[in-house]
Amino acid sequence: MSTQAPGGTHSSSSSGDAPSETPQSTTTPRGRSLHLLLPALVIVALLGVLAALLTGGSSKPQLPGGANSASATGLDGLLLKPLRAAPPLSTLRNYQGQSVSLASYRGKAVFVTFLYTHCPDVCPLIASQLHNALGELGARASHVQLVAVSVDPRGDKPAAVANFLREHQLTGTMQYLIGSAGELAPVWSAWNVGSSKDAGNPEFVNHSALIYGVSASGKLTTIYPANFTPAEIVHDVPALMASSEA
Question: Which pairing describes strands 109-115 and 144-150: parallel, antiparallel, or unpaired?
């Protein structure tokens, strides 16, 4: 999910003579307080929606891979139940035109997320934190594969993806998969990922912003919110690697 930072277009006018006095602000202390409070309320609301998704709220939204619940365990991510094979991604190609299959990463812990290259906020954060997690893993990073799937078939062209990966120091360590709307839509559906143009700002995309942990045996196992920490990924890698069931 993506939101535009507060702000807008400002305009001003002037005449040949300087104004005789400085205009006074019409914003009252109450107005300023309300202006500061509203963004905070929006953030709280968004966190509440995410919490409902992760804990199986009353609306019981579908989870990817046929899972019907997510629960806290010894893992830092929430454990999906039942454990099932991660939906395939083999119909898509990376920005270099190469096909990518999750099955080729058996034996590794795989982290899958859904991004778009000109996202103004959440996607760069996710990419940066995944890069930081690889840094904290050190030599163990060779046992991890990062995969991103585009939620913007019109904007995520090969050049844009290459630039995004370079900016976030993920070239060679993240597979960023792209495709047409017709190719991407079945993947979004299989992973229960929403993607739609922002009604107010059509250049932006509203989308699910979660990270999914896939075990070394190919099971969709854990789920993380967009504000995860690198330490959470580092903590869960051994568990994702260790068991044929996790």
Answer: parallel
